[in-house]
Amino acid sequence: MQMYFSPSVMGFFCVEVHGDAMPDDVVAISNELYQSLQGWAIQVVDGLPARLPAPPVDPTPALVAAVQTALDDGARSRNYDDIATAITYRGDPNPKFAAEAEVFFAWRSAAWTKAYEILAEVQTGNREFPTIPEALALLPALVLPDSNG
User: Fold this and answer.
1) How does strand 3-6 pair with strand 48-51?
2) Is residue 148 over pLDDT 80?
3) What is the C-alpha end-to-end distance of the chain, expressed in Å?
4) Beta bridge partners of 44
5) What is the rounded average pLDDT of the residues 15-37?
6) Distance (Å, rounded) from C-alpha 73 to C-alpha 148?
7) CA 28, CA 99: separation in Å to the nearest integer?
8) I want to staple 75 with a disulfide (CB 3.0 to 4.6 A). Which of 46, 55, 80, 110 is the partner?
9) pLDDT tens sequence across 87-117
C-alpha cells in the first residue's frame, strides 16, 4: 500500500482509506519511512516527515538522587537508617554516636556543596555534565572515627 504525507496537516494518508479525500499537498513516501515514524512526534524537513529530535534529558535529578543515595549508604554503613537519622545524634550523650553524627553532618554539607558546584559549572558551560560515577568520585570522602570509639 502506497503511503502519502501531507505537510499542511502533518498527517499520513493512503488511497485505500482516503481515496480522493487526501489533501492537495500529499507526497508519496516509502513504506520504510512511514514505518520508521510510527509512534514518534514528527516535523517537516524539505517537505517530508522526519522524527523530531528527542528533548534533552536533564541529568540533574539523577545526580541529586545519586548524591542522596551515596549519603544514605554512608550512614547505613554504621547502621543508621539514613543520613538524616545519623545527623540527629549530634550532641547525643553517647560519645560514639555524637562523634559520628558530627562527621556525617559535615560530610553531608560538603557533599551537597560540591554537587551544586558541579551543577553550576555545567549550567555556566564551564564543564560537561559528568556521568553519575564521575560526579560521585568528585564528592568528598566519608572519613568516620574508629567504629570502636
Assistant:
1) unpaired
2) no
3) 78
4) 49
5) 94
6) 20
7) 74
8) 80
9) 999 999 999 999 999 999 999 999 999 999 9
- As a whole number of angstroms, the distance between CA 8 and CA 94 comes to 74
Q: Give me the half-sphere count of Cα atoms (radius 13 Å) on the Cβ side of residue 117.
A: 11
Which cell goes with 55? 528533548
Answer for the pair 66, 73: CB distance below 8 angstroms, yes or no: no
Question: Which residues are CB-contacts of 42 (< 8 A; sequence separation ≥ 6)?
Answer: 10, 49, 50, 51, 52
Within 13 Å, how many C-alpha atoms sit on residue 105's CB side?
A: 11
Give me the pLDDT at residue 87, please.
98
Nearest to 112 by CA among 57, 144, 74: 74
pLDDT of residue 98: 97
Return d(Cα 86, Cα 73) in angstroms, integer.
11
Task: Give the orientation angle of helix 60-76 with respect to helix 95-123, to 10 degrees.
Answer: 170
Alpha carbon of residue 60 to chain centroid: 6
What is the residue whose three cell numbers read 539514613? 82
Closest residue by Cα to residue 68 from 108, 102, 103: 108
